[in-house]
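Summary for the steering committee. The consortium agreed at its last meeting that each partner would contribute one worked example illustrating the joint modelling workflow. Our contribution is presented below. We chose a case with several input lines so that the handling of multiple components could be demonstrated. No manual editing was applied between input and output; the record is shown as generated.
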Amino acid sequence: MTALGKLLRTTAFRLTLVYLVVFALFAAFLLAYFALNTRRLITEQITSTVEAEMTGLAEQYNRGGIRLLVAVIESRARQPGSSLYLVTTSKGEGIAGNVGSLAPGVLDQPGWTETVYRRLTDPETQDEHHALVRVSTLAGGFRLLVGRDLEERERLYHIIADAGRWSVTIVIILGIIGGVFVSRRVLNRVDAITDKARVIMAGDFSGRLPVGGSGDELDRLAISLNAMLHQIEALMRGLKEVSDNVAHDLKTPLTRLRNRCEAALRTATSEAGYRATIEATIEESEGLIRTFDALLMIARAESGEARDNMADFDASEIARDVAELYEPLAEEKGLALHVDASASAPVKGNRELVSQALANLVDNAIKYAAAGRQEANGVPADIVVGAGREGDRIVLSVRDSGPGIPVADRGRVVDRFVRLEQSRSQPGSGLGLSLASAVARLHGGELRLEDNAPGLKAVIALPRADTAASA
Amino acid sequence: MRLLIIEDDRDAADYLVKAFREVGHVVEHAGDGEEGLALALDGRYDVLIVDRMLPKLDGLAVIGALRAKSIETPALILSALGQVDDRVKGLRAGGDDYLPKPYSFSELLARVEVLSRRMGGREETHYRVGDLELDRLSHRVTRGRDEILLQPREYRLLEYLMRHAGQVVTRTMLLENVWDYHFDPQTNVIDVHISRLRSKIDKGFAQPLLHTVRGAGYMIRDGAR
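What follows is the complete predicted structure of the assembly.
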């Protein structure tokens, strides 16, 4: 019963019902129209035939009197499929014709009448027939009746009416069968999709909805949903990777911290020993807080929450400010830091976040260029912080001549906590590029890592603030 | 200095009360927003330290209620929410400073001491520490008879240090007030700026004025005092 109920509630079945009603009504209307018109046409035909015969007979009467009329009628009445004829005296006594009996009073009213009759030759027991007759009075007081049987007309009418009833019945039966068939097909497909969706919801994110291959609307829906599932699966995997990394990169320093404290408890004997441990512990915890803050910041930038705090600012100004902040540090490391940001570069965004992203890039450049310089032994290593326009984009760039990043690793270093082998010795959380990338994406831009030959060119490309909007 | 700490975490509050008393301040403690507001209303305190999330009455609401009654006691907001817009929200609600948790006590102490002096409202046009002088009208800096030429940022750095002469100023305070950045620049860039400034004002003089306070920050003061 529930299966039937489900079937009856499907859209396909309901649509079928609607079409069924429409088609049945249409068929009924068409046939009724046809029947009525046929009937009218036949009536008209009868009328004109009777009219013509009446005129002809009246002429015969005028020419040859009652005798000729009777003769003509007698001869016509004998022909098969003949019309109905009757000639009577003014008192109604029959003289000639093939009509045996009539409904009473028909002869008394001249003009058209529909009546029941029996032919002269018909036995009394046979049913009476219907006929359309015309009565007129001749010059000598005789009455002349001419008519035609209506049986043919009625039979045709009934045939058409029957055809109508049958066709409507067949339309309904076929329609319901078709509706059930189509609905069941659709229902089966939908049930298959629903079942699979349940499996996926239960945690099997690698599952995909079945696609029939016919390219119909259900297939298109299934394909779209599969694409969505794919995206969700990728995000879930990313999330899992991140949480694994977070667990690893937070637990490692926590373990170090704990080990150090335990070691101090076990071995330290002097106050100085404890003090050293405590100081190291505080330092380690500060690193942890820093990592944590960076993670929160990235999460925030990625969630798009910081979009509320967008304002117009000049990216060149940011480049100059950040360069100014880092210039002494670069100099201390024996690097020259230049600024190339003279033209105004309007950006709409979160100033603080963009500053931090650029600061991270500059910080990286200083760290790695300084390390690289030691290897390259005396080759002048410059860092250039730039800002400018590039088509409809504003680009903030940091170019260094450090070791750079191999092409194969450029996609990977943006991920959280990824630190290349050669950079493990440098301090840092491995989150700097992740943050820069998240900030760029928050603003609808991207972080690009390019070859500066030698060195790295890190570019934050942001959409240019709409100058038309501000004008 | 009289302090009121409004903080619902018992351990954190006990630690703060003890630590502030150790450095010689008078401290009172309230465990929820309503109690804190009631205590703060008579305005006997020099600085309020208000946790942002409090039972009964939210920290920002406490400060808002005080400001509505024209009680302008400087308030420092402590919060686990450390993001820039949360800070902006806190300052807009009437807070005077904002410190995200977890914080170090030396940072909190430095900020509280700066806040307590701010109330004096002394926006002087001339600062003097020992024989170092800074004139805010002409932007001239001299030490003894020598004029010292500073870059604009170095000037602002020195100006901030001299306005808070004799007080500890932390690296984050400098980053916030001199550079207007509220993020952590990872490497200690501030230290390099300070050492540059130090080389300009202290180099060649017997008496250093710009001191590093270990584990806390920097302080400019006349060594003779």
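Helices of chain B lie at 10-22, 33-40, 59-68, 84-92, 105-118, 152-163, 171-178, 189-201. Chain B touches chain A at residues 82-85, 88, 102, 104, 153, 179, 181-187, 189, 192-193, 195-196 (CB under 8 Å).
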